[in-house]
Design goal:
The complex is a heterodimer of chains A (108) and B (144). Chain A contains five helices and five strands. By secondary structure, chain A is α/β, with parallel strands linked by helices. In chain A, strands 1-5-4-3-2 form a five-stranded mixed beta sheet. Classes of the chains: A alpha/beta (108), B alpha+beta (144). The interface between A and B is medium-sized, with 21 and 24 residues.
Chain lengths: 108, 144
């Protein structure tokens, strides 16, 4: 399943579109950036409530397929700018990370 | 391929630019055609060291030397130095202030991640003068 299909499945708001045809191959949940960067895998959907500019840096370095902001978490304006520059896919959902992860797991 | 030298400056207390140097280095390594594992390990180790410079020191300088056999990165700052390196190497130990933790940093994984993803790490630190971290990532398996 690619990011566009995941967005539809999650009924997510698309905050930033990079390459939406990227394949989602896994899922990682976390808000501590060092932890995420070292453990998230390339191609993961990264579920977090951290919508600051540093999250974008981590998404790029860890090469995740997309960021999914859960529980309607805010995305900072400078984070959005950085995401646009780097082509990072960002989705947002109202559900919490647990419910969202279940939906992701049922889709990949 | 000859040895390629790259230099990046890291600004103090600028979280909006934090990760820029490691991001640029990552793109360069990708462009040069290094294995994804090598690119990822280098990017993570350098990102952690770069963030440490922003959080704890007054910024610093990053010099990368890229050859076909290995990538060597020297990260030099003029910060306060690390009083107890073995303590700082322990997972979960952090001296990051509250405002930095609220950004998602300060998990106490910085130096442990640098060690985990590098093949060799040297930490040269002097209290009141600064810290120089030299890390090496081998690009090919060691020959027996």
């Amino acid at each position: 399943m690619d990011v566009r299909q995941l967005a539809e499945k999650l009924n997510a708001e698309v905050l930033c579109e990079g390459d939406m045809s990227r394949e989602v191959t896994g899922c990682y949940i976390g808000d501590l950036l060092s932890w995420v960067m070292s453990r998230a895998q390339e191609g993961d959907a990264w579920l977090t409530v951290m919508g600051n500019i540093n999250s974008i840096g981590v998404a790029v370095l860890a090469d995740v397929a997309c960021i999914v902001l859960t529980e309607g978490a805010a995305l900072d304006a400078d984070a959005l700018n950085r995401a646009v520059q780097n082509g990072v896919n960002i989705l947002r959902v109202e559900d919490n990370s647990y419910i969202t992860a279940i939906a992701v797991a049922g889709s990949i | 391929m000859e040895v390629i030298q790259l230099h990046y400056d890291v600004n103090a207390n600028d979280f909006t630019c934090a990760g820029e140097a490691s991001g640029k280095l990552k793109r360069e390594l990708k462009r040069l055609g290094f294995e994804p594992d090598v690119v990822r390990r280098t990017a993570i180790a350098v990102y952690e060291a770069e963030i440490n410079m922003v959080i704890h020191a007054d910024g610093g300088a990053i010099d990368a030397s890229i050859s076909p056999e290995c990538i060597t990165v020297v990260l030099k700052d003029r910060g306060p130095g690390i009083p107890d390196v073995s303590l700082a190497m322990r997972e979960g130990y952090s001296t990051a202030p509250e405002n930095v933790r609220n950004l998602g940093f300060g998990a106490g994984m910085g130096l442990p991640n640098i060690k985990k993803y590098s093949d060799k790490v040297d930490i040269d630190t002097v209290i009141g003068e600064g810290t120089t971290i030299t890390l090496r990532i081998n690009t090919a398996p060691a020959e027996n």
